[in-house]
Design brief:
3 domains, two-stranded antiparallel sheet, alpha+beta, four-stranded antiparallel sheet, globular, Serine Threonine Protein Phosphatase 5, Tetratricopeptide repeat
């Protein structure tokens, strides 16, 4: 089971990402604590905490109408949208929040998570890297970047017949996908109809190019190691340490390092006691 660290340093599985993302009051340029926009954000936060996502989104939207550059309203609305599995909407809101607050590492981490859930491995890694640049001691950002590096990606680009429009799809590939790949010459197909990985049928004569990016296990292990080094050694952060050790153990196991994996699994178990 893969666990993630959010911008607010909560660990979750991708499936439960939204349910544990918590709304927050961060720095909001030009907003006083008593401003109507912040009052609306607080009201929305309360609704979100109670599970009223639609009500929360409506209130965050009102806050944005009151103050179009209210970064925390965009940020929290993005969290609420991700909770509703509106990943594209969440990414759009996190992007707007970043435009207003470009030096906020937590926003980059949460946008990276949404990008990963969308299947954009490279975009996720770029956001986690930017979070690390902004906060070099952000253990969770290293952890998330490491997880993204453990995944293979599989992309398709095809030209629609008649229109000539180019469409690109990005997917995550199974860990053993590279073992089933044909030689490079077979990755490009010119025929029709074609069934894409997503199951869509493309009629007519279509050119489709498939690209495969293998996991970066060495890079992942380096990131997990950094996360472990940065994580404070006290009881409050034991769960995070266990998560980081477990992630590195899995990466080492995938590389065939059974001894290293066993040691890390044991460390993870020790942290949970």
């Amino acid at each position: 089971m893969i666990h993630w660290t959010l911008g607010n340093v909560l660990s979750v599985t991708p499936a439960s990402l939204a349910s544990v993302m918590t709304a927050a009051i961060l720095v909001c340029s030009g907003c006083s604590k008593q401003s109507p926009a912040i009052t609306m954000v607080k009201q929305a936060n309360t609704k979100q905490a109670k599970g009223d996502l639609d009500g929360a989104i409506a209130d965050y939207t009102k806050a944005i109408e009151l103050k179009p550059d209210c970064s925390i309203a965009f940020y929290n609305r993005g969290i609420a949208k991700q909770a509703k599995n509106d990943t594209a909407g969440a990414i759009a809101d996190f992007t707007r929040a970043i435009e207003v607050e470009p030096n906020s590492a937590p926003i980059y981490v949460n946008r990276g998570l949404s990008k990963f859930l969308k299947g954009d491995r490279d975009g996720a890694i770029a956001d986690f890297t930017r979070a690390i640049e902004l906060r070099p001691d952000f253990a969770g950002a290293y952890h998330n970047r490491g997880l993204a590096k453990t995944r293979a990606s599989y992309g398709e680009t095809y030209i629609e017949p008649g229109t000539g429009h180019t469409n690109t799809w990005s997917h995550f590939a199974p860990r053993d996908f590279d073992k089933t790949l044909a030689e490079e010459s077979k990755l490009r197909v010119e025929s029709g109809p074609i069934k894409t990985v997503t199951g869509a049928i493309i009629p007519g004569r279509t050119t489709i190019t498939r690209n495969f990016v293998k996991p970066d296990m060495d890079g992942a292990i380096a990131d997990f190691t950094k996360a472990i080094e940065l994580n404070p050694k006290n009881a409050m952060y034991a769960a995070n340490r266990a998560m980081y050790y477990n992630a590195r153990a899995q990466a080492r196991q995938d590389q065939g390092d059974k001894a290293g994996a066993a040691e890390d699994f044991a460390q993870a178990k020790e942290q949970r006691r």
